[in-house]
Protein backbone atom coordinates (compact mmCIF):
# COMPACT_ATOMS: atom_id res chain seq x y z
CA UNK A 1 0.00 0.00 0.00
CA UNK A 2 1.52 3.30 -1.10
CA UNK A 3 0.42 6.67 0.19
CA UNK A 4 2.85 8.88 -1.69
CA UNK A 5 1.33 12.28 -2.33
CA UNK A 6 -1.60 11.79 0.05
CA UNK A 7 -0.70 14.41 2.59
CA UNK A 8 1.58 14.65 5.59
CA UNK A 9 1.39 11.01 6.55
CA UNK A 10 3.84 9.51 9.03
CA UNK A 11 6.62 7.22 7.89
CA UNK A 12 8.63 4.66 9.82
CA UNK A 13 11.89 5.98 11.26
CA UNK A 14 14.23 4.98 14.06
CA UNK A 15 14.85 7.63 16.65
CA UNK A 16 14.92 8.38 20.36
CA UNK A 17 11.13 8.91 20.53
CA UNK A 18 10.12 5.67 18.81
CA UNK A 19 9.81 4.27 15.31
CA UNK A 20 7.69 7.09 13.87
CA UNK A 21 8.91 10.37 12.49
CA UNK A 22 6.81 13.48 12.94
CA UNK A 23 5.24 15.79 10.35
CA UNK A 24 5.72 17.69 8.08
CA UNK A 25 7.67 14.90 6.30
CA UNK A 26 5.74 12.75 3.78
CA UNK A 27 6.40 9.51 2.07
CA UNK A 28 7.33 11.43 -1.09
CA UNK A 29 9.71 13.79 0.69
CA UNK A 30 11.16 10.81 2.50
CA UNK A 31 12.22 9.43 -0.83
CA UNK A 32 10.45 6.09 -1.11
CA UNK A 33 7.24 4.21 -0.52
CA UNK A 34 5.37 4.56 2.76
CA UNK A 35 6.91 2.48 5.48
CA UNK A 36 10.57 2.61 4.41
CA UNK A 37 12.99 2.71 7.33
CA UNK A 38 15.33 5.69 7.27
CA UNK A 39 19.00 5.53 8.27
CA UNK A 40 19.53 6.05 12.00
CA UNK A 41 21.63 9.23 11.82
CA UNK A 42 19.10 10.90 9.48
CA UNK A 43 16.08 9.77 11.46
CA UNK A 44 17.37 10.98 14.84
CA UNK A 45 17.67 14.53 13.55
CA UNK A 46 14.00 14.69 12.49
CA UNK A 47 12.15 12.63 15.09
CA UNK A 48 12.07 15.31 17.81
CA UNK A 49 8.48 16.61 17.72
CA UNK A 50 8.05 20.35 17.80
CA UNK A 51 5.44 22.13 19.91
CA UNK A 52 3.27 22.60 16.83
CA UNK A 53 3.26 18.91 15.96
CA UNK A 54 3.48 17.43 19.46
CA UNK A 55 -0.27 16.84 19.65
CA UNK A 56 -0.11 14.97 16.34
CA UNK A 57 2.74 12.71 17.41
CA UNK A 58 1.87 8.98 17.33
CA UNK A 59 2.60 8.70 21.05
CA UNK A 60 -0.29 11.11 21.68
CA UNK A 61 -2.84 9.73 19.19
CA UNK A 62 -4.82 6.48 18.88
CA UNK A 63 -3.10 3.67 17.04
CA UNK A 64 -3.94 3.46 13.31
CA UNK A 65 -5.11 7.07 12.96
CA UNK A 66 -2.94 9.51 10.97
CA UNK A 67 -3.85 12.97 12.30
CA UNK A 68 -1.99 14.82 9.51
CA UNK A 69 -3.71 13.17 6.55
CA UNK A 70 -7.01 12.39 8.31
CA UNK A 71 -6.91 8.83 6.96
CA UNK A 72 -6.39 5.38 8.33
CA UNK A 73 -2.87 4.14 7.69
CA UNK A 74 -1.05 0.91 8.32
CA UNK A 75 1.72 1.35 10.86
CA UNK A 76 3.83 -1.56 9.79
CA UNK A 77 6.69 -1.99 7.41
CA UNK A 78 6.65 -4.40 4.47
CA UNK A 79 8.84 -6.69 6.60
CA UNK A 80 6.46 -6.88 9.56
CA UNK A 81 4.20 -9.43 7.87
CA UNK A 82 1.07 -7.51 8.79
CA UNK A 83 1.77 -7.46 12.55
CA UNK A 84 1.36 -3.96 14.01
CA UNK A 85 4.27 -2.78 16.11
CA UNK A 86 3.92 -0.85 19.30
CA UNK A 87 5.98 2.33 19.30
CA UNK A 88 8.99 2.27 21.61
CA UNK A 89 8.89 4.87 24.33
CA UNK A 90 11.40 6.03 26.87
CA UNK A 91 10.67 5.69 30.60
CA UNK A 92 9.68 8.92 32.28
CA UNK A 93 12.53 10.99 33.63
CA UNK A 94 12.93 10.80 37.39
CA UNK A 95 14.98 13.59 38.87
CA UNK A 96 17.46 12.73 41.59
CA UNK A 97 16.37 15.58 43.81
CA UNK A 98 12.76 16.75 43.91
CA UNK A 99 13.56 19.90 45.87
CA UNK A 100 14.37 23.35 44.52
CA UNK A 101 17.00 23.55 41.85
CA UNK A 102 20.48 24.32 43.19
CA UNK A 103 23.73 25.07 41.49
CA UNK A 104 26.02 22.06 42.15
CA UNK A 105 29.03 24.37 42.31
CA UNK A 106 27.53 26.81 44.79
CA UNK A 107 28.48 26.77 48.45
CA UNK A 108 24.77 26.74 49.35
CA UNK A 109 24.33 23.45 47.52
CA UNK A 110 27.34 21.87 49.21
CA UNK A 111 26.34 23.00 52.67
CA UNK A 112 22.76 21.81 52.10
CA UNK A 113 24.02 18.41 50.99
CA UNK A 114 26.32 18.00 53.99
CA UNK A 115 23.92 19.28 56.63
CA UNK A 116 20.70 17.73 55.35
CA UNK A 117 21.34 14.30 56.88
CA UNK A 118 22.31 15.69 60.29
CA UNK A 119 19.53 18.28 60.24
CA UNK A 120 17.00 15.51 59.67
CA UNK A 121 18.60 13.39 62.38
CA UNK A 122 18.59 16.09 65.06
CA UNK A 123 15.01 16.99 64.16
CA UNK A 124 13.87 13.63 65.54
CA UNK A 125 12.33 13.83 69.02
CA UNK A 126 14.50 13.06 72.07
CA UNK A 127 17.67 12.64 69.99
CA UNK A 128 19.59 15.60 71.39
CA UNK A 129 18.84 14.84 75.08
CA UNK A 130 19.83 11.20 74.59
CA UNK A 131 23.08 12.15 72.88
CA UNK A 132 24.00 14.84 75.42
CA UNK A 133 23.31 12.73 78.51
CA UNK A 134 25.05 9.66 77.12
CA UNK A 135 28.17 11.60 76.16
CA UNK A 136 28.28 13.28 79.57
CA UNK A 137 28.41 9.88 81.23
CA UNK A 138 30.98 8.62 78.73
CA UNK A 139 33.33 11.49 79.51
CA UNK A 140 34.91 9.13 82.05
CA UNK A 141 36.64 7.32 79.20
CA UNK A 142 38.70 10.40 78.41
CA UNK A 143 39.21 11.54 82.02
CA UNK A 144 39.86 8.43 84.11
CA UNK A 145 43.20 7.16 82.65
CA UNK A 146 44.89 10.55 82.90
CA UNK A 147 43.19 11.30 86.23
CA UNK A 148 44.48 8.04 87.76
CA UNK A 149 47.96 8.74 86.44
CA UNK A 150 48.13 12.28 87.81
CA UNK A 151 46.66 11.23 91.16
CA UNK A 152 49.22 8.46 91.66
CA UNK A 153 52.08 10.71 90.52
CA UNK A 154 51.00 13.31 93.07
CA UNK A 155 51.65 10.63 95.73
CA UNK A 156 55.15 9.90 94.38
CA UNK A 157 54.43 6.54 92.76
CA UNK A 158 56.76 5.41 90.00
CA UNK A 159 55.78 4.95 86.38
CA UNK A 160 56.20 1.20 86.71
CA UNK A 161 53.43 0.93 89.27
CA UNK A 162 51.30 3.47 87.41
CA UNK A 163 51.61 1.41 84.23
CA UNK A 164 50.50 -1.68 86.14
CA UNK A 165 47.48 0.17 87.56
CA UNK A 166 46.42 1.44 84.13
CA UNK A 167 46.83 -2.05 82.64
CA UNK A 168 44.60 -3.50 85.36
CA UNK A 169 42.04 -0.74 84.76
CA UNK A 170 41.90 -1.30 80.99
CA UNK A 171 41.80 -5.10 81.25
CA UNK A 172 39.04 -4.89 83.85
CA UNK A 173 37.04 -2.56 81.60
CA UNK A 174 37.53 -4.87 78.60
CA UNK A 175 36.37 -7.85 80.67
CA UNK A 176 33.39 -6.20 82.29
CA UNK A 177 31.99 -4.69 79.08
CA UNK A 178 30.64 -7.91 77.51
CA UNK A 179 29.37 -9.19 80.88
CA UNK A 180 27.42 -6.02 81.56
CA UNK A 181 26.21 -6.01 77.95
CA UNK A 182 24.76 -9.48 78.38
CA UNK A 183 23.05 -8.33 81.57
CA UNK A 184 21.54 -5.38 79.69
CA UNK A 185 20.16 -7.67 76.98
CA UNK A 186 18.51 -9.79 79.66
CA UNK A 187 17.32 -7.31 82.29
CA UNK A 188 17.09 -4.00 80.42
CA UNK A 189 19.22 -0.87 80.41
CA UNK A 190 18.04 1.05 83.49
CA UNK A 191 18.85 -1.43 86.32
CA UNK A 192 22.22 -2.42 84.87
CA UNK A 193 23.32 1.15 84.12
CA UNK A 194 22.32 2.52 87.52
CA UNK A 195 23.86 -0.36 89.47
CA UNK A 196 27.12 -0.38 87.55
CA UNK A 197 27.49 3.41 87.76
CA UNK A 198 27.17 3.31 91.55
CA UNK A 199 29.74 0.51 91.77
CA UNK A 200 32.24 2.29 89.50
CA UNK A 201 31.84 5.53 91.46
CA UNK A 202 32.56 3.59 94.65
CA UNK A 203 35.80 2.41 93.05
CA UNK A 204 36.94 5.98 92.36
CA UNK A 205 35.99 7.06 95.88
CA UNK A 206 37.95 4.11 97.31
CA UNK A 207 41.01 5.10 95.29
CA UNK A 208 40.89 8.70 96.52
CA UNK A 209 40.11 7.59 100.07
CA UNK A 210 43.14 5.31 100.16
CA UNK A 211 45.31 8.36 99.69
CA UNK A 212 47.34 6.59 97.05
CA UNK A 213 49.67 5.11 99.69
CA UNK A 214 48.18 1.60 99.85
CA UNK A 215 49.07 -0.13 96.60
CA UNK A 216 46.79 -3.12 97.14
CA UNK A 217 43.83 -0.82 97.80
CA UNK A 218 44.64 1.20 94.68
CA UNK A 219 44.71 -1.94 92.51
CA UNK A 220 41.41 -3.17 93.98
CA UNK A 221 39.81 0.23 93.48
CA UNK A 222 40.74 0.56 89.79
CA UNK A 223 39.68 -3.05 89.20
CA UNK A 224 36.25 -2.28 90.66
CA UNK A 225 35.96 0.95 88.64
CA UNK A 226 36.92 -0.83 85.42
CA UNK A 227 34.74 -3.91 85.84
CA UNK A 228 31.62 -1.88 86.66
CA UNK A 229 32.10 0.96 84.18
CA UNK A 230 28.53 1.57 82.91
CA UNK A 231 28.10 0.35 79.30
CA UNK A 232 26.69 3.63 77.99
CA UNK A 233 28.19 3.26 74.51
CA UNK A 234 26.66 -0.13 73.60
CA UNK A 235 23.38 0.82 75.26
CA UNK A 236 22.96 3.90 73.06
CA UNK A 237 23.95 2.04 69.89
CA UNK A 238 21.49 -0.77 70.55
CA UNK A 239 18.76 1.81 71.28
CA UNK A 240 18.98 3.70 67.96
CA UNK A 241 17.07 1.14 65.83
CA UNK A 242 14.14 1.44 68.25
CA UNK A 243 14.17 5.23 68.38
CA UNK A 244 14.77 5.99 64.69
CA UNK A 245 12.33 4.55 62.16
CA UNK A 246 14.44 4.93 58.99
CA UNK A 247 17.59 2.86 58.42
CA UNK A 248 19.43 5.82 56.92
CA UNK A 249 18.90 7.76 60.14
CA UNK A 250 20.35 4.86 62.12
CA UNK A 251 23.43 4.90 59.89
CA UNK A 252 23.75 8.66 60.45
CA UNK A 253 23.51 8.13 64.22
CA UNK A 254 26.31 5.55 64.10
CA UNK A 255 28.55 7.88 62.07
CA UNK A 256 27.87 10.80 64.41
CA UNK A 257 28.52 8.59 67.44
CA UNK A 258 31.86 7.44 66.07
CA UNK A 259 32.86 11.00 65.19
CA UNK A 260 31.87 12.66 68.46
CA UNK A 261 33.70 9.92 70.36
CA UNK A 262 36.88 11.78 69.44
CA UNK A 263 35.65 14.84 71.32
CA UNK A 264 35.63 12.80 74.53
CA UNK A 265 39.35 12.10 74.19
CA UNK A 266 40.04 15.77 73.44
CA UNK A 267 37.85 17.45 76.07
CA UNK A 268 38.25 14.82 78.81
CA UNK A 269 42.00 15.28 79.41
CA UNK A 270 41.58 19.05 79.34
CA UNK A 271 38.90 18.87 82.03
CA UNK A 272 40.96 16.62 84.29
CA UNK A 273 44.02 18.88 83.99
CA UNK A 274 41.99 22.02 84.65
CA UNK A 275 40.24 20.50 87.68
CA UNK A 276 43.55 19.23 89.03
CA UNK A 277 45.12 22.66 88.79
CA UNK A 278 42.18 24.36 90.49
CA UNK A 279 41.18 21.85 93.19
CA UNK A 280 43.79 19.10 93.34
CA UNK A 281 44.17 15.69 91.72
CA UNK A 282 41.91 13.88 94.19
CA UNK A 283 39.08 16.30 93.52
CA UNK A 284 39.59 15.90 89.78
CA UNK A 285 39.20 12.14 90.11
CA UNK A 286 36.02 12.61 92.14
CA UNK A 287 34.73 14.95 89.41
CA UNK A 288 35.11 12.04 87.01
CA UNK A 289 32.80 9.92 89.16
CA UNK A 290 30.27 12.76 89.53
CA UNK A 291 30.04 13.33 85.77
CA UNK A 292 29.59 9.60 85.23
CA UNK A 293 26.73 9.45 87.73
CA UNK A 294 25.01 12.56 86.35
CA UNK A 295 25.28 11.41 82.73
CA UNK A 296 24.02 7.91 83.52
CA UNK A 297 21.05 9.22 85.49
CA UNK A 298 20.16 11.79 82.80
CA UNK A 299 20.25 9.08 80.13
CA UNK A 300 18.52 6.20 81.92
CA UNK A 301 15.82 7.76 84.09
CA UNK A 302 13.90 10.48 82.17
CA UNK A 303 13.54 8.78 78.77
CA UNK A 304 10.68 6.37 78.22
CA UNK A 305 12.42 4.67 75.30
CA UNK A 306 15.38 3.74 77.54
CA UNK A 307 13.15 2.45 80.31
CA UNK A 308 11.06 0.38 77.89
CA UNK A 309 14.00 -1.11 75.97
CA UNK A 310 14.36 -4.88 76.22
CA UNK A 311 16.47 -7.37 74.33
CA UNK A 312 14.63 -9.45 71.76
CA UNK A 313 13.51 -12.92 72.84
CA UNK A 314 16.16 -15.52 72.08
CA UNK A 315 17.44 -18.88 73.19
CA UNK A 316 20.14 -18.38 75.85
CA UNK A 317 23.57 -19.47 74.71
CA UNK A 318 26.88 -19.33 76.52
CA UNK A 319 28.58 -17.90 73.40
CA UNK A 320 26.05 -15.08 73.06
CA UNK A 321 26.69 -12.99 69.93
CA UNK A 322 29.99 -14.79 69.29
CA UNK A 323 28.06 -17.70 67.80
CA UNK A 324 27.73 -15.46 64.73
CA UNK A 325 30.53 -16.05 62.23
CA UNK A 326 30.31 -12.47 61.06
CA UNK A 327 30.80 -11.09 64.55
CA UNK A 328 33.71 -13.42 65.37
CA UNK A 329 35.61 -12.35 62.27
CA UNK A 330 34.72 -8.72 62.81
CA UNK A 331 36.00 -8.78 66.40
CA UNK A 332 39.27 -10.28 65.16
CA UNK A 333 39.57 -7.49 62.57
CA UNK A 334 38.93 -4.84 65.22
CA UNK A 335 41.81 -6.23 67.27
CA UNK A 336 44.03 -5.24 64.34
CA UNK A 337 42.56 -1.72 64.43
CA UNK A 338 43.34 -1.51 68.14
CA UNK A 339 46.91 -2.66 67.55
CA UNK A 340 47.39 0.22 65.12
CA UNK A 341 46.06 2.72 67.65
CA UNK A 342 48.31 1.42 70.42
CA UNK A 343 51.34 1.54 68.14
CA UNK A 344 50.47 5.10 67.13
CA UNK A 345 50.58 6.28 70.75
CA UNK A 346 54.12 4.94 71.19
CA UNK A 347 55.21 5.94 67.69
CA UNK A 348 54.30 9.60 68.09
CA UNK A 349 56.35 9.86 71.29
CA UNK A 350 59.33 8.19 69.61
CA UNK A 351 58.99 10.52 66.62
CA UNK A 352 58.87 13.55 68.94
CA UNK A 353 62.16 12.52 70.52
CA UNK A 354 63.68 11.85 67.11
CA UNK A 355 62.97 15.33 65.70
CA UNK A 356 63.62 17.06 69.03
CA UNK A 357 60.38 19.08 69.23
CA UNK A 358 58.70 18.79 72.65
CA UNK A 359 54.92 18.53 72.54
CA UNK A 360 54.81 17.29 68.94
CA UNK A 361 53.31 13.94 69.95
CA UNK A 362 50.26 15.68 71.40
CA UNK A 363 49.86 17.71 68.22
CA UNK A 364 50.07 14.58 66.08
CA UNK A 365 47.52 12.72 68.19
CA UNK A 366 45.23 15.75 68.20
CA UNK A 367 45.51 15.96 64.41
CA UNK A 368 44.68 12.27 64.16
CA UNK A 369 41.59 12.72 66.36
CA UNK A 370 40.42 15.83 64.51
CA UNK A 371 40.85 14.14 61.16
CA UNK A 372 38.90 11.14 62.41
CA UNK A 373 36.10 13.48 63.48
CA UNK A 374 35.94 15.04 60.01
CA UNK A 375 36.05 11.66 58.31
CA UNK A 376 33.18 10.34 60.38
CA UNK A 377 31.01 13.38 59.66
CA UNK A 378 31.60 13.05 55.92
CA UNK A 379 30.94 9.32 56.11
CA UNK A 380 27.57 9.98 57.71
CA UNK A 381 26.48 12.17 54.78
CA UNK A 382 27.18 9.58 52.08
CA UNK A 383 24.36 7.18 51.19
CA UNK A 384 26.28 4.00 50.48
CA UNK A 385 25.10 1.47 47.92
CA UNK A 386 27.68 -1.07 49.10
CA UNK A 387 26.83 -3.20 52.11
CA UNK A 388 28.87 -2.62 55.30
CA UNK A 389 30.66 -5.95 54.87
CA UNK A 390 31.76 -4.85 51.39
CA UNK A 391 33.10 -1.39 52.26
CA UNK A 392 34.78 -2.27 55.57
CA UNK A 393 37.94 -3.79 53.98
CA UNK A 394 38.50 -0.67 51.87
CA UNK A 395 38.15 1.61 54.87
CA UNK A 396 40.56 -0.47 56.93
CA UNK A 397 43.17 -0.62 54.19
CA UNK A 398 42.85 3.12 53.55
CA UNK A 399 44.29 3.99 56.96
CA UNK A 400 47.43 2.02 56.15
CA UNK A 401 48.45 4.47 53.40
CA UNK A 402 49.26 7.33 55.78
CA UNK A 403 51.13 5.04 58.15
CA UNK A 404 53.08 3.49 55.28
CA UNK A 405 54.48 6.88 54.26
CA UNK A 406 55.42 7.59 57.88
CA UNK A 407 58.00 4.81 57.63
CA UNK A 408 60.24 7.23 55.74
CA UNK A 409 60.33 9.48 58.86
CA UNK A 410 59.30 12.69 57.07
CA UNK A 411 59.55 16.28 58.26
CA UNK A 412 57.08 17.37 60.96
CA UNK A 413 54.87 19.31 58.55
CA UNK A 414 54.49 16.30 56.27
CA UNK A 415 54.04 14.03 59.29
CA UNK A 416 51.01 16.08 60.30
CA UNK A 417 49.50 15.65 56.84
CA UNK A 418 50.14 11.90 56.81
CA UNK A 419 48.74 11.46 60.31
CA UNK A 420 45.62 13.35 59.27
CA UNK A 421 45.28 11.13 56.18
CA UNK A 422 45.46 8.01 58.35
CA UNK A 423 42.95 9.39 60.85
CA UNK A 424 40.32 10.07 58.19
CA UNK A 425 39.39 6.37 58.17
CA UNK A 426 39.10 5.62 61.90
CA UNK A 427 35.59 6.93 62.57
CA UNK A 428 34.23 5.54 59.26
CA UNK A 429 35.60 2.12 60.25
CA UNK A 430 33.84 2.37 63.60
CA UNK A 431 30.56 3.57 62.08
CA UNK A 432 30.66 0.83 59.44
CA UNK A 433 31.27 -1.71 62.20
CA UNK A 434 28.24 -0.46 64.11
CA UNK A 435 26.05 -0.95 61.04
CA UNK A 436 27.50 -4.41 60.46
CA UNK A 437 26.75 -5.48 64.02
CA UNK A 438 23.19 -4.13 63.95
CA UNK A 439 22.46 -6.05 60.74
CA UNK A 440 24.01 -9.45 61.51
CA UNK A 441 24.06 -9.92 65.27
CA UNK A 442 21.78 -12.69 66.62
CA UNK A 443 18.53 -11.66 68.25
CA UNK A 444 18.70 -10.44 71.81
CA UNK A 445 22.48 -9.94 71.93
CA UNK A 446 22.96 -6.47 70.41
CA UNK A 447 24.29 -4.73 73.51
CA UNK A 448 26.78 -7.49 74.24
CA UNK A 449 27.91 -7.45 70.61
CA UNK A 450 28.66 -3.72 70.72
CA UNK A 451 30.55 -4.30 73.97
CA UNK A 452 32.67 -7.00 72.31
CA UNK A 453 33.68 -4.46 69.68
CA UNK A 454 34.95 -2.08 72.36
CA UNK A 455 36.72 -4.97 74.09
CA UNK A 456 38.49 -5.94 70.87
CA UNK A 457 39.76 -2.39 70.33
CA UNK A 458 40.92 -2.10 73.95
CA UNK A 459 42.74 -5.44 73.88
CA UNK A 460 44.35 -4.59 70.55
CA UNK A 461 45.40 -1.20 71.91
CA UNK A 462 47.22 -2.80 74.82
CA UNK A 463 48.86 -5.37 72.54
CA UNK A 464 49.89 -2.68 70.06
CA UNK A 465 51.48 -0.54 72.77
CA UNK A 466 53.50 -3.52 74.00
CA UNK A 467 54.65 -4.53 70.51
CA UNK A 468 55.47 -0.94 69.60
CA UNK A 469 57.67 -0.60 72.68
CA UNK A 470 59.59 -3.70 71.63
CA UNK A 471 59.83 -2.42 68.05
CA UNK A 472 61.35 0.89 69.16
CA UNK A 473 63.96 -0.88 71.26
CA UNK A 474 64.86 -3.52 68.69
CA UNK A 475 64.32 -1.86 65.30
CA UNK A 476 64.20 1.88 65.83
CA UNK A 477 61.69 4.48 64.71
CA UNK A 478 60.99 3.03 61.27
CA UNK A 479 60.00 -0.31 62.76
CA UNK A 480 57.33 1.22 64.99
CA UNK A 481 55.48 2.66 61.97
CA UNK A 482 55.61 -0.68 60.16
CA UNK A 483 53.44 -2.15 62.91
CA UNK A 484 50.22 -0.10 62.24
CA UNK A 485 50.61 -0.74 58.50
CA UNK A 486 50.80 -4.49 59.01
CA UNK A 487 47.96 -4.38 61.54
CA UNK A 488 45.68 -2.39 59.21
CA UNK A 489 46.35 -4.67 56.24
CA UNK A 490 45.80 -7.79 58.37
CA UNK A 491 42.50 -6.35 59.59
CA UNK A 492 41.49 -5.61 56.00
CA UNK A 493 42.29 -9.18 54.95
CA UNK A 494 40.14 -10.54 57.76
CA UNK A 495 37.36 -8.13 56.80
CA UNK A 496 37.47 -9.42 53.23
CA UNK A 497 36.08 -12.72 54.51
CA UNK A 498 33.02 -10.97 55.97
CA UNK A 499 31.24 -10.68 52.63
CA UNK A 500 30.56 -14.37 52.17
CA UNK A 501 29.76 -14.89 55.84
CA UNK A 502 27.42 -11.89 55.89
CA UNK A 503 25.32 -13.26 53.03
CA UNK A 504 24.50 -16.34 55.06
CA UNK A 505 24.57 -14.85 58.56
CA UNK A 506 21.55 -14.23 60.78
CA UNK A 507 19.73 -10.94 60.41
CA UNK A 508 17.65 -9.06 62.88
CA UNK A 509 13.99 -8.46 62.08
CA UNK A 510 12.82 -4.91 61.67
CA UNK A 511 12.94 -3.09 65.02
CA UNK A 512 9.73 -1.95 66.60
CA UNK A 513 9.09 1.79 66.78
CA UNK A 514 9.16 3.42 70.19
CA UNK A 515 5.42 3.99 70.05
CA UNK A 516 4.90 0.22 69.92
CA UNK A 517 7.75 -0.67 72.25
CA UNK A 518 6.39 1.34 75.16
CA UNK A 519 2.80 0.21 74.98
TrEMBL record:
The GO cellular component terms are: plasma membrane
Subcellular location, record wording: Cell membrane
What's the protein name?
MFS transporter
UniProt cross-references to PROSITE patterns, sorted A to Z: MFS
Which ranges carry the Major facilitator superfamily (MFS) profile domain?
A: 326-519
The record's section on InterPro entries has: MFS, MFS_dom, MFS_trans_sf
- Specify the species: Streptomyces calvus
GO MF annotation list: transmembrane transporter activity
Transmembrane segment boundaries? 127-152, 158-180, 192-210, 216-232, 253-276, 282-302, 330-351, 363-382, 413-437, 449-471, 477-498
Coiled coil among keywords: no
**Record's bilayer topology term:** Multi-pass membrane protein
Q: Please give the superkingdom of this protein's source.
A: Bacteria
According to the record, the residues making up region (Disordered) are: 53-95
Keyword list, A-Z: Membrane, Transmembrane, Transmembrane helix
Record field: compositional bias (Basic residues): 72-91
SUPFAM superfamilies given in the database record: MFS general substrate transporter
UniProt xrefs under Pfam families: MFS_1
Amino acid sequence: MSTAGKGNCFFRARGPYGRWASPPFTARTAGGPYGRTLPFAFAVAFTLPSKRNRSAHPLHTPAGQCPAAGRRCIRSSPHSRGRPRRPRTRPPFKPICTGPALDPLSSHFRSSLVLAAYRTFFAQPKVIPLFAANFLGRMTGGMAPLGITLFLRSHDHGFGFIGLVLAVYQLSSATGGPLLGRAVDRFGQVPVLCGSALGAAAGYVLLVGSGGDNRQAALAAVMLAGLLAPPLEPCLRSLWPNVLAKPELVATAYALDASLQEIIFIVGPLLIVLAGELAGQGTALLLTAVLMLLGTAAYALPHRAVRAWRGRPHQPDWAGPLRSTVLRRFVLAMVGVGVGLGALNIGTVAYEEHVGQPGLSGVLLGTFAGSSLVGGLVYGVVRWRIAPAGRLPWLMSGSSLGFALMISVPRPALALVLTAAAGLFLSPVMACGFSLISEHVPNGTATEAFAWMATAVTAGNALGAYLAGLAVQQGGLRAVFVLPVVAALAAALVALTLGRAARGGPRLPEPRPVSEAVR
